[in-house]
Amino acid sequence: MQLTRSVQEYVLLVTVSPISRADAPRQSLTAGARLAASTVLGSFGVRPFRERVRENRSTLNETLPIHSKWWRDHAKAEGELLYVAIGDSAAQGIGASRPDRSYVGQIADELRETTGRSVRVVNLSVSGATTSLAVRDQLPRFRDLRALRPDVVTVSIGANDIADWDPVRFDRNIRSIFAELPMDAVVADLPCFYFPQNERKVAEANRMLRAAAREHGLVVAPLHDATRRQGLRGILTHFARDMFHPNDHGYAVWAGAFRPALSAVLRSRHRAAMSSLSGITERRAA
Q1: Which three-class secondary structure state does DSSP give residue 277?
Q2: N or C: less crowded end of the chain, CB within 10 Å?
Q3: Nearest to 102 by CA among 247, 274, 229
Q4: d(CA 83, CA 185)
Q5: CB 145 within 8 A of CB 84
């Protein structure tokens, strides 16, 4: 592949230029720029960047069974609140330093902190899941949990549909998923993909997702806006080594996108509980 002079200069800048250790923010941005540049060049088949991209992706792939087992083991723990998550590798926390640094883990930590209660997390997500796979594999398991009346339910699914985009299939699947959810579940739209070709598909998917959410009375967490607002700095500092999955900082943005809606759910549940308690007290007094 023949590179233009401007591209060659950019590659040299982001892969060779030294960084002052005293400038930590600049160091982080430059490291991100180097990673982004090597990923783009590797995707175009430029050596040695191609091998580096394969190595980075392979390293993250090795964490898939580790994260999956971690969530299965922790789902057995008891908790005063039950949090159920439907999703894909982002819910699993692929790219994070630890499984509990995924957005699901960060949401669970916030629930513990804000309520002062213990939280059991049943993370039904599967790495690589599309909406079709979620309907097939995760919905049956979710139906088994509905009798337990989960206190919090989050859904973030569909990003993996973009690679093999079929709008009819996506619309059918997302409606099937939303039809099974309780009214106070919080669903996220798809995150920003940054590249125009993918963003056109994401925009179509999010229109369908929001329409389905309205029909079922579900609140949509604005994940696309939250990730898009991070801009270039977010691209350079919020992604893991494969430049696809978020890192800890990126997952904090995802958790933040869910926060307002989840806070409203908790407030509503608290008011309902207090109203119920008041009714019981009044009946006893009578």
Answers
A1: helix
A2: C
A3: 247
A4: 10
A5: yes
